[in-house]
Amino acid sequence: AIVPPQAVEMCNNWFLKILSIRELLPRVYVELSLMRTYRYVAKKFRIDSMREVVERLAMQVRGVADPLVAAHARWYVCLRAKEVLSHDGEHWGESMVVCAEDTLQLIANLPPAAYECKGLSRSAYVLLFMPSLQWLVDTIARHSHRDVAEQFLERVLKMMESTPSLCHSSIAQILTSAFDAPLVVERVHRFTTLIANAELTMTFDVPRLNVVASLCHALAEMPAPLPYSKHDKMALVNHLWEIVNADRGNLEGFLVAARGLLRLLAVHASAGQVRVLIGAIIARIDETSVSPVGEEAGSHPGPHVDLPSLCQDLLLTLVTHVPGSTIFAMWAQILPLVHHVSASDRDAFVRRLLKAAPHTSRFATTVLDLCRQLHDRLDDDTPADVVAATSASLCRAVRNCFSADDVEAQLRFLGDCRHGLAQLDTVKVTTCEEALRLVRHIHDPAPGKKVKRTAAKACFAFCHVTAPGINDAPLRLQTCANAAAVAFHLGHVGQAEALLMYAIGGLKDLLPLEKRRDGTVRNNDAAITRIATTLLSLSAAAPAHAKYGPLYGMLAVIDWANDFAWGASSEGPWRVSCAALRLAGKVAKGRLPYGFHKCPKPSTLRDDENFAGALATLVLNASNAVSREINTSGHAVLAATESTLTLYRADPRTGRLLQRCLKLLMSGGCPGESNDITFQRHKIVVLSAAREALGGDDGLNAIVDGDDIPPLQLNQPAAAADDEGDAS
What we know:
- By secondary structure, this protein is an all-alpha fold.
- The protein is built from 37 helices and two strands.
- Strands 1-2 form a two-stranded antiparallel ribbon.
- Strand 1 and strand 2 (521-523) form a beta hairpin.
- Helix 30 (552-563) packs antiparallel against helix 31.
- Residues 199-204, 290-303 and 710-728 have low confidence and may be disordered.
């Protein structure tokens, strides 16, 4: 960019005034704060690269006498260098090598007077250097070329090995956490030697067990296998374990290091070694006296340790890096560790573990134990979102334990889930769904094997016993209807009829408005309508009952719908009645699009007097119900018209209802018709269908204006439709 001459002259004056400052530290800090403006005078000062300015200022900081002040001045050099050099390329961190090595030399050659005058020990004073050193080393590791970073790491390790005052656990921690895992792994034996020999400072310094943890995490980040032989790898693990286990009085440091070692073994060792380490961790916890969190130090024998948080970290490491099957296999051994975790963290761990559960019935008992831990914590005060999340986790866990190999064992597991997780209706519904899933597998045997119908009946019996325990009435009846549909489809007519009759009998227990546990009111109108139409569809294809005759289910549902206390603005009455009329039309024509195994098709029952009488009763009751509702809703008129069009060609006795509906549609007298665009569009479609079904406008007008339409009467056989009329 073109720099105005005025800006160049102004910056030139600034930097000349800065150079006139006699004190070193103020001059360096002012120049650092204005470093970005060097681009205005770069040409005048013959500066080819800002790296020259950064390196010059880093060398000037060497003139600061106070070691700690000099270290933090280098830190500020690093911060400013990041702003002016980061856009020049990714390897700008090489300029910080001089600053980092100067800081290390200061730490190595600290005179006692530097910290004694401040009333600090050497370790406490060295700790003050660590933030600046951490920033410098991170900058070199992340923003330098790999060769430069590797050479710097090698020089620092040699300095630490040759200078006892630099053999500091804080410095080792910085190196292991800053550099890439491959660079650390190549020098892992040198790091372990330094860690073993590092000075142990009790108050301010980073414990060397934290350094072990950092080193283990670096090893775990390496892709398997490690670049060592099996013997060398085990020797390294044993050496790390000796360092971890050496300090018997530091439980917190032990658990931090054990977490890193656990991750290392999970990635690069066998499940048996993981099991051994977990056993050692639990044994160490049991033998150490730990003061609870919140107690004052010294009020309880043993160190002050936040054991729940540390155990939670161990469990998260397990569930993150160990396969789910391995965790479930050693669950009995892990359980004591879980008991040390707080209740909320335990629930989170159990949910995560259930999510990672293997899809097998091998660990069904363990899965059920985990589910009970979540289930038993639910009560009336549990928030609804927590209940929903817990319910979803438990249902998913039950589904994952499915196995069709042993029907008896699977039903036993589902029964245990029903009993042990009894607070949640969704779990009971899931057990019924799994039982029906098991039935489908039974009816799909391997080639050469027979269907075990007795086992299938046991599954349906399980559903029949479980469904009454579901507290939510709509959910209970929907579950029974689903089970009945599967039973009809697979030819278990007796079990299907029992389930269907139970569902129909339970309709009287439904409430249009239901008060929930949290005080809110739920409108069940849509659910009740859906259940009623489902039962109508099942009953339409069900065979005649030995006691109640044909179409017993449809008649019972219509009788219930006529007596049910629907809500004031409910659409349920006309929706259920119109669904019954549509199904009656298809049954009368013998064109029901579905059927069940071992159930006679309705087309074979046309000449059956009982069937004709039941159909006439059904049509009469449904038509009367629709007639009462068409004055309340325009959509009811449309649905009634569509339903009676389906039925009219097979049973002209519904003509009066069809005539009334068509008159309302053609006169524009339907309730709410004028303001509903959707209704108007649907009305056009329905009238077009009516013209087509009735032979054009003449047929439509004949129905609307006719006076000789026969009324609906009981026990009057329907007129058989000829082939020509049926085709129309």
